[in-house]
Amino acid sequence: MLEKEKPHLIICTHSFPSRILQRLKKRNLIDIPVINVYTDFFMNGIWGKKGIDYHFVPHQEAKQELVRKYKIPKERVIVTGIPVHETFMARKNEKKGVKQRPHLLIAGGNQGLGNILDFFQKMNGTNRFLYSVLCGNNKALYEEILRWKQPHIRPLPYISSIEEMNRLYEEADAIITKPGWVTVSEVLHKRIPLFTIGYLPGQEQINLRYLEEKGLICNLSELSHYEQKIWHVLHDEIEQSRFSRRIAEYFAQIEQTAQDALKHIVLMQAKGYHVLSH
């Protein structure tokens, strides 16, 4: 494939091709610059580390790990956070407090009807909130919620438009989701309170651990009822202040956006600077 496509630059957002490219570079079989873009809040052992030209990492701890453990020069490790589309990087419009009837956006509909039924059961059937449920491609879930005929619960089919998804984030007072990297990263940029009601062992569990340690997510999975906890987090001034501070601390560590870092690397390469050579 490399011989056919002859790329000027390779960007890895998955660990397996990164590992393969590391081997090829160690054997001097290719000299194409390679960038790892880590798409979780941790770096698993499969990723190629040495021989990779640049690393776009999610946080400072990941940078320190690469520098100390793998002896990667610090100038080759850039803290970008987990990349998201530029549309989501615009901060959510400031508003005066939470709406009288908070709007909860529920993601993860592709996981099945059972999770959503369990969520509403643990919300005690309350209509103190407005709910928008992202059903994804789960038509059974979408049709089931329609049959409920509850005006405060709105099912949404698969959304392909980035602008529409951004609008939903702008409308929401909080997001209920699983700790996968895509939704979480987008929501962090919108500075919206983030709740999770479950996770899968492995990547989601490790992501959740980091997010909890940093105070960036509220884990509801151990609770038998959710309503009071969500209401408290959204209305308590101390909780809101803490969340705002933790979000600010998270973004303060970001050195560059992935977009800006990539533009700089491509520009230097175009000018003939050997910034990517070892």
Structure description:
There is one protein chain. Strand 3 (54-57), helix 3 and strand 4 (77-79) form a beta-alpha-beta unit. This protein starts with a helix and ends in an 8-residue tail after the last helix. It has a six-stranded parallel sheet. Strands 1-2-3-4 form a four-stranded parallel sheet, covered by helices on one side. It is built from twelve helices and ten strands. The radius of gyration is 21 Å and the shape is elongated. With 278 residues, it is an alpha/beta fold. The protein folds into two domains: 2-81 and 254-270, no CATH class; 87-252, 3-Layer(aba) Sandwich (Rossmann fold). The chain is 43% helix and 13% strand. One of its GO terms (molecular function) is hexosyltransferase activity.
The radius of gyration is 21 Å
**Into which percentage range does the β-strand content fall?**
5-15%
Shape annotation: elongated
What is the CATH C-level name of the largest domain? Answer: Alpha Beta
Q: How do the strands of the widest beta sheet line up side by side?
A: 7-6-5-8-9-10
Largest sheet: 6 strands, parallel
| Subunit arrangement of the protein | single chain
How many helices in DSSP terms? 12
- Give the total of domains: 2
Give the low-pLDDT segments: none
